[in-house]
Amino acid sequence: MTQNGQKVNYTGPFIAMVFLFFIVGFLTCVNQQFLSPLQKAFLEGAGSLKNTFATLIIFSWFLAYPLTGGIGSAWVNRYGYKGTLVRALLVMIAGLFFFFLSSWFTVTFPEATFTIASAVIPAGYFIFLAGSYIVGSAVTILQVVINPYLVACELPGTRDVQRLQIGASANSIGTTVGPYFVSGIVFGGVA
């Protein structure tokens, strides 16, 4: 692509989009890898509903896909690709903050619980669910932006489909690295 008669170098933006695609895959997988520790942290009092509540963590993440894909598209139309990308990253930061907030709230206010059927669930669990949905929303909106960006970032010797495949490969690498990160680094090989 040319701009004012000059050939534009899209290598930097392309690498940034591929890296973001890696992060999308990584976070998606890491969210699922924390189910067992989250069951111990939040769901000890859930009794026979422990697995049901654990599944809600993944459900809240993937519920964001059908509910916020349209928001991502509307943001692209309103704010453009860069504006939407920045907003999605800010939403992701907010969601990650909710993860921290859920931990802090559970430790600071251990008596704040909800009883659902026979299950006693700490309020921090519901904050974590909200964080999971928010980060899932950010990931969804990022994907709305990343795919067209990869197509638009023309690189010499590549075609649109090749650039999309490179991004998808980075996403797959992120999902592959995620479990190793969780078990090796977060849990020190214990998991």
CATH class reads Mainly Alpha
Shape, please?
A: elongated
CATH superfamily: MFS general substrate transporter like domains
CATH architecture: Up-down Bundle
**Major sheet: order of its strands?**
1-2
Largest sheet, in brief, is: 2 strands, antiparallel
Helix content: over 70%
Can you count the beta strands? Answer: 4
Radius of gyration: 19 Å
The count of domains is 1
What does this structure look like?
By secondary structure, the chain is mainly alpha-helical. It has a single domain (8-186), classed as Growth Hormone, Chain: A (Up-down Bundle). Helix content is 77%, strand content 6%. It has helices spanning 11-33, 35-42, 50-108, 123-152, 160-186, and strands at residues 2-3, 6-7, 113-116, 119-122. It has a two-stranded antiparallel sheet with strand order 1-2. Helix 1 crosses helix 5, helix 2 crosses helix 3 (50-108) and helix 4 (123-152) packs antiparallel against helix 5 (160-186). The radius of gyration is 19 Å and the shape is elongated.
Q: Secondary-structure map with pairings?
A:
Blueprint: E1 2-3, E2 6-7, H1 11-33, H2 35-42, H3 50-108, E3 113-116, E4 119-122, H4 123-152, H5 160-186
Antiparallel strand pairs: 1-2, 3-4
Helix pairs in contact: 1-4, 1-5, 2-3, 3-4, 4-5
Give a concise summary.
With 191 residues, this protein is mainly alpha-helical. It has helices spanning 11-33, 35-42, 50-108, 123-152, 160-186; strands at residues 2-3, 6-7, 113-116, 119-122. It has a single domain (8-186), classed as Up-down Bundle (Growth Hormone, Chain: A), CATH 1.20.1250.
